[in-house]
Design goal:
This protein is an all-alpha fold and 169 residues long. The protein is 85% helix and 0% strand. The chain has a single domain (3-168), classed as Arp2/3 complex 21 kDa subunit ARPC3 (Orthogonal Bundle), CATH 1.10.1760. The protein contains 8 helices and no strands. Helix 3 (37-48) packs parallel to helix 5 and helix 4 packs antiparallel against helix 5 (76-98). The radius of gyration is 16 Å and the shape is globular.
Length: 169
């Protein structure tokens, strides 16, 4: 399969994953903020796709999910665009420099959460909301710890296996 076909195929699969997994987690209970299912597809994108494709997925996935399922709601959908785009693009760029390392993933996760905090501050100023830094940090780091651990412990090796399968064909 040529690179364009591969990128289109993976993008479609990861977009579907980014729509279906969050929906399933919300159907089973409000577990999205705990297990971060939309992030799973973006981490895999960061490991498997070029940065531009990651940016497109980071923009399309939360907005399409918002339109199709009602989740994430406004204004969280736009904060997710910021967070997921930074996650995917920064991981793809770091992967080009460092390979598929967990350290690169952790750094990309920190960058994406810093971008989300910055986006939340800007949105709070624009919409007249109170900006509660500790509340936001608690939400995106403490409440999401199970999802963060899943991403760090499972996804790098999963992406390497996918890469090996692709190279074998």
């Amino acid at each position: 399969m040529n690179k364009l076909g591969r990128n289109i195929t993976f993008s479609a699969l990861l977009l579907a994953m980014g729509l279906i997994l969050p929906w399933l987690f919300h159907v089973l209970g409000n577990w999205g903020a705990v297990f971060l299912p939309m992030h799973i597809g973006m981490v895999l994108a960061g490991y498997l796709l070029p940065p531009g494709w990651c940016l497109a997925l980071g923009i399309i996935t939360p907005l399409a999910s918002s339109v199709l399922t009602g989740m994430p709601i406004f204004p969280l959908n736009y904060l997710m665009v910021i967070e997921l785009s930074v996650l995917g693009v920064s991981l793809a760029l770091l992967r080009q420099r460092m390979g598929s390392s967990r350290l690169g993933l952790i750094f990309a996760m920190l960058l994406s959460r810093a971008a989300r905090i910055g986006g939340t501050w800007i949105m709070a100023q624009l919409l007249g909301f109170t900006f509660d830094l500790m509340g936001i940090v608690g939400l995106i780091f403490v409440m999401g710890l199970p999802g963060i651990l899943i991403q760090i412990l499972w996804l790098p090796s999963m992406s390497q296996r996918i890469g090996m399968i692709l190279q074998a064909k």
